[in-house]
Amino acid sequence: MNIVLWVLGVLLALHTAVGAAWKFTNSEQSVPSLNVIPHGVWMAMSGVEILCAIGLVVPAFYKPLAFLVPLAAVLIAIEMLAFSVLHLVSGDSTMGPMVYWLVVAAICAFIAYGRYALTPFS
What we know:
This protein has one domain (2-118). The protein has helices spanning 2-25, 39-57, 68-90, 96-118. The chain is mainly alpha-helical. Helix 1 (2-25) crosses helix 4, helix 2 (39-57) runs antiparallel to helix 3 and helix 3 (68-90) runs antiparallel to helix 4.
């Protein structure tokens, strides 16, 4: 289980880092349902995502920071759930983005649970 959690964690870290880079180069208006997010918050989310990506992999090299993995996964899951709620509230009828965000949130929840309860600090 430990290997599965590390593989998922590294993949989530890559996904999150790419998402942060995308946010730096694209406006929130490029996703119509996220248009209500102010630009400053959009940019701040990029910084938080970079920190989360780092938090997901740093414990592989420095075990005392293992508490960062579930914390980072939960923060990413919260962001994905917030995107899903904004998508629903916007009235956008396409389900593709919301399904994507919910799948990422589920993976984050699995990583957080796995690192907190199943194989903590491994």
